[in-house]
Design goal:
Number of helices: 8
Order of helices and strands: EHEEHEEHEHEEHEEEEHEEEEHEEEH
Strand content: 25-35%
Structural class: alpha+beta
Largest sheet: 8 strands, mixed
Shape: globular
Helix content: 10-25%
Radius of gyration: 21 Å
Distance between the termini: 44 Å
Length: 383
């Protein structure tokens, strides 16, 4: 039997994969999306609402701005509110915020510097300690009024619906077992069938390293846990009074947001307990030590939000050595495109990453500045 053939195959239909399938289908590409779980699912990165900020560094401000425009367009098209615009906060020692402030200023992105006292006055749930470093330096914050929240689960659904409307084929509950080159074709085998295409796209989150051998030592699947705690005063943690945050402390980097849809304000820790995870055999049941790590943070910085635990949920993130995502074609095969590492604060970039992937597949290049996120930026093992 002759295998089904497509112009492109996308492996992994999560946030970036769904966006890639949608953008490719919009351009008339005959595209197949393959997802090993349901669409959407909770086995990878957290599907909970995440903060949209307009920068994490100098090189990605234009990407965030384009991503926001794309989310707005998609929401209007699908008649659904995917993005909540209510501001977002970066919190840390004053010196740690200088690069971010310079990036925002150089791109004319609206922002406001807040002292710890001003932050608490405006948003009473926040409590920043004084002179955290011991040398006179204090915590401060940068507020971005155009930031807000993105609903990743609904964003995936919206992209898949757009892809369906444009003629894409998407198969869930179908696991890729291997792939190889057969002449000019890419051959992809699954637990159900075999397919061929001109181009292969891998957007499989924590499973990417197992599919693309060249990236196995670069992409590190991580176990993370997010918690929901009942606030003493729920009004102080409502969306209009509690912007989502990215928080840099000596204990680690944390991210969180308001009470929204689920009882309790929610947050997690980047790199959590430093656990490298096997995506196929992940321990998903949260443990007491998971809760203790998170409660220590809340006790110190959000004392009004440390009531009874409402929930704990395990997720899988994909980390890189420099904590930045990857997107591009394989150095030795420009017909294989990979996007990975969109965990935590970079997850809202999924919309523009999907556009970048479509550019690379259809044009072989993109106008977006992706050099800082190239696949080959890390030295080869034992090099």
């Amino acid at each position: 039997m002759t295998p089904d053939r497509y112009d492109a195959i996308v492996v992994g239909v999560g946030d970036a994969g769904a966006a890639a399938v949608a953008h490719l289908a919009d351009r008339g590409v005959d595209v197949l999306g393959l997802e090993r779980f349901d669409i959407p699912h909770g086995y990878g990165s957290s599907p909970e609402p995440g903060a949209i900020r307009l920068a994490a560094g100098e090189e990605d401000v234009p990407l965030y701005e384009r991503a926001v425009d794309l989310w707005e367009e998609l929401g209007v098209e699908r008649g659904e509110r995917l993005r909540y615009r209510g501001g977002a906060l970066d919190v840390g020692l004053e010196s740690e915020l200088e690069e971010l402030a310079a990036s925002l200023a150089s791109h004319d992105v609206a922002h406001e510097r807040l002292s710890g006292a001003t932050l608490t006055e405006r948003y009473p749930a926040y409590r920043l300690p004084d002179d955290e470093s011991g040398d006179g330096e204090e915590y401060a914050a940068i507020y971005q009024p155009d930031g807000g929240l993105l609903r990743p689960d609904r964003a995936i659904v919206a992209h898949v619906e757009r892809a369906h409307d444009a003629g894409a084929t998407i198969r869930a509950r179908e696991r890729v077992t291997d792939w190889d080159r057969v002449g000019d074709d890419v051959r992809v085998r699954t637990n159900r069938d075999e397919y061929r295409a001109d181009e292969l796209v891998v957007t499989a989150g924590p499973w990417t390293g197992g599919i693309v051998e060249d990236l196995e030592d670069v992409l590190r699947p991580e176990r993370r846990v997010r918690t929901w705690l009942q606030p003493d005063s729920p009004a102080a943690f409502a969306p209009e009074r509690f912007p989502p945050f990215a928080f840099r402390t000596d204990e680690g980097r944390y991210y969180g947001g308001p009470v929204l849809g689920v009882p309790g304000f929610s947050f997690g820790r980047r790199h959590h307990r430093g656990e490298t995870a096997d995506p196929t055999h992940l321990e998903r049941e949260p443990m007491p030590q998971d809760e203790r790590v998170l409660r220590r943070f809340a006790d110190r910085y959000f004392p009004g939000g440390t009531g009874p635990t409402m929930g704990l949920r395990t997720s899988l993130a994909t980390a890189t050595p420099d904590d930045r995502f990857l997107v591009g074609t394989l150095p030795d095969d420009d017909r294989v495109t990979v996007a990975a590492g969109l965990s935590g604060g970079e997850a809202p970039l999924a919309s523009v990453v999907g556009e970048i992937v479509a550019d690379l597949v259809t044009e072989g290049e993109t106008d977006h500045g992706i050099e800082p996120f190239a696949l080959d930026r890390f030295p080869a093992p034992n090099a």
